[in-house]
Amino acid sequence: MTAPAAADRGLPPSFRRFWASAAAANVADGIRAGALPLIGALLFATAMFVPLAVDASALVVAVILVLTLPRAASTVAAPPAREERPRLLTELLGGARRLLGHPRLAVVTCAASAIAFADAAWWSVLVVYSGSVLGLPEAGFGLLLAAGVAVVFHRSGRPRP
Predict the structure, then answer these.
(1) Reduced to 3 states, what is the DSSP secondary structure of residue 161?
(2) Residue 71: per-residue pLDDT
(3) What is the model's pLDDT at position 161?
(4) Alpha helix positions (H), 2-137
(5) What is each CA distance from 20 to 49, 115, 117, 122, in whole angstroms?
(6) Chain centroid, CA 41 distance in Å
(7) What residues contact 41, with CB distance under 8 A and at least 6 apart?
(8) What is the pTM of this model?
(9) CA distances from 32 to 38, 40, 149 (A)
């Protein structure tokens, strides 16, 4: 009997379920972090417009699915028809005031927005850098992304000392 198996028997069932679900989540994260960028790189290497077309078609399918949901699935009650809604700008300013009224929430929101902006900017710069500075064609950019995924897989598979 191995040590992990013996340790596993000593844990309460709730902990065993927790560790099993954590292991499944790690596998799903590995697939999401490794396989999906590789598929995107291969699509990009095939033709530049293919990833954008796949993304756009996924958006269209999502919109169609949302629009076909029955009205009973909505948990938000529609405002009465007679009541006039405030203008969009008024609602936006009210939301901004509420956000600024909670300093921690405002910091987290601004930090998440800055990270998302920087991540999007980095990917945009990478495309231009690979074409202009490195002189890679579209297929070369796809291979560059695939090489990056291979390095991440290689490094994540080994235990750290």
Answers:
(1) coil
(2) 67
(3) 45
(4) 3-10, 13-30, 36-46, 49-67, 88-101, 103-132
(5) 40, 31, 35, 35
(6) 16
(7) 141, 142, 143, 144, 145, 146, 149
(8) 0.36
(9) 10, 11, 11
Spans of the chain, pLDDT less than 50 = 1-7, 161
State the DSSP string of 117-138: HHHHHHHHHHHHHHHHTS---H
Question: Residue 21 is encoded by which pair of tokens?
Answer: 């679900």
Looking at residue 123, its pLDDT comes to 79
Q: What is the pLDDT of residue 47?
A: 75
Q: What is the pLDDT of residue 112?
A: 92
Residue 33 class from Cβ within 10 Å (0-12 exposed, 13-18 middle, 19+ buried)?
middle
What is the rounded distance in angstroms from the CA atom of residue 135 to the CA atom of residue 31? 30
Instruction: Give yes or no for a contact between 35 and 128, defined as CB atoms under 8 angstroms apart.
Output: no
pLDDT at 52 (0 to 100): 75
pLDDT at 76: 66
* Residues whose CB falls within 8 Å of the CB of residue 12, separated by 6 or more in sequence, listed in order: none
